[in-house]
Amino acid sequence: MADPQIGVYGLGTMGSALALNMAENGIRVAVSNRSPDAVTAFLTEAGPLADTITGYTTFEALVAALPVPRVLLAMIPSTGPMDSLLDKVIPLLAPGDTVIDAGNADFHDTRRRTRRLEQHGLHFVGIGVSGGEAGARHGPSIMVGGAEESWKQLRPILQPIAAKYDNVPCVAHLGADGAGHFVKTVHNGIEYADMQLIAEVFDLLRNGLCWPTTQIAQQFTTWNDGPLGSYLFEITGKVLGYSDSHTGQAMVDVIRDAAGQKGTGRWTVIEAVKLGQSATMIEAAIAARSWSSEKETRKSVAEAFGSQRKTIEFDMDDLEPALMAARVMEYAQGFRILEAASQTYDWELDHKRIAEIWRAGCIIRAKMLDDIADAFGSDLPHHQLLMAPYIEQIVKTGVPRLRKIVSMAIAAGFPVPVLSSALSWFDTMRQPRGTAGLIQAQRDFFGHHGFDRIDGIDEHHGPWWE
Ligand code: 6PG
Question: What pTM, to 2 d.p., does this model score?
């Protein structure tokens, strides 16, 4: 067999799926794994695809098999194991070789590793791969960082394996060093917000309108055929349709209500705050996951204060436009963080391109991303998505309805952290004169911090000490 084009190290779920995707697209792949048994098992699983795959039982043999300049993709935890791998691989590589981290990495680590490899004349490329196992196997959305030069080398490998939207591959080089991993982090933040939004709607339908789960499943399927169409709505319709073989109950009802989180959503919020930004819908979603895991505390609080909620009534026709508006705001908040990071790290992120590569393959793929991509194609005041004409219309139609639903939910005792934070953010942003004058006055009073006056008079302190 001719030389492999790429080495894939780490044959866990995602690494195996990516390697098989490559093989299926005619790319010659060399693979290896920390435990050699996994290599044998993988080659068996590959079946006829194994014809374009060569397996190596040691990492050193894998590296030696790659032609120069080498391209080595690692799908291993992007924390300590990635640094240990670099310790091991740097002495084996030659200037011009590339190491790819395809995991969910903290982009600060990616920037640090990029500088480390640069000192040896090597390239380090962080790529965000979204779409779960099925995406990695049949077409993920791929967010690429690193040097332009590396992108030229990787493009022939990544374009064939990426998801396609209107035949265009959902992969793009987005900027230098950690740009790919940063965009993936924000993708996950939006993913968290969207999942929590769906959970809040489920609660309102289930416990507010008292619908059976099967009817809610059908509702999500119906929504998925309309403008709310998206992967997460589609799978929610499916998930809610399943029942548990042990109890006969809806499957969702027998799952412990304590959500896990690996951390990427949290990074979005941490980085947003560091950038002087805020993404309240993402913050609310993370808070909801964290509170959900305090199961025992919730039981005690319920005993002390009661957990009764009133049933509610609202016009179902209001819900679709209300959710359209709320979801647009999730994206608006996410893209605002991307813009802040782009300016801070000189990435020149292309928002239109990012929206385009999120249209297929990834977890947050949604019909509305096509309109969002168009919106970013025009000149937007302050890069603010809400200011695009079509998006503005969605917001104008949806917000009054969202307001009605959120008010009712709150009055009846339903927690709606994501839906309500959408409104608070929107209502803040539509006030040309807010309340921060008072905050400034307080700061000046207790700390002599000073303020600017609205009339340009050159005085920066209040009369508090006179
Ligand atoms: C994707 C997902 C994926 C993520 C999982 C779990 O884009 O394919 O974002 O990368 O790791 O969805 O994330 P949490 O454990 O943080 O929910």
Answer: 0.96
